[in-house]
Amino acid sequence: MFTEEIEIMKLLSEKYPDDIRIFFKSPKSIDEIISFEEETGIRLPDELRELYKLTNGFDSNITYMNLWSLETIKKHFNEGYNDWIEEGDSDKYIVLGSDGSCGYLLMEIATGNYLSYGDEGEVMPIDSIKDLLCWNIDHIYDSVRDFEGDDKVDNYLERNADRI
Prior knowledge:
Blueprint: H1 3-15, E1 22-24, H2 30-40, H3 46-54, E2 58-60, E3 66-67, H4 70-78, E4 93-98, E5 104-108, E6 114-117, E7 123-126, H5 129-144, H6 151-159
Antiparallel strand pairs: 1-2, 3-4, 4-5, 5-6, 6-7
């Protein structure tokens, strides 16, 4: 499901190493994902399960999306990491990482819905992680693109224009 997005992000990181460094963590097996779910009591949406089977999160040197590892999510969840949300709501959400807009990427535990929680407290729904990755690829590419561009990235963004 996310193979193309991961490949595009790797391509951009390799093509522009002075500007973009994205570090992908080793993927998780389905057994490891199920273990995370059992230990936390949180069922991940199928979309997120698929992404963690490709990479156990990723970090970048730029201010775009970062996806935390399952271990980091579990640690913060167990510690009640909630300095970003209203009192009493910390059991309703888990933090998945940063959303690419100076805020947090959240998942509502009961529904599996994704949210962006901005640095000024604004909350916006996110339709899918795939949409968010596409949006981030577009922004990363805009910040470093050579004048002539890259056909593979251009084709990907053209096919996914409705996600941006």
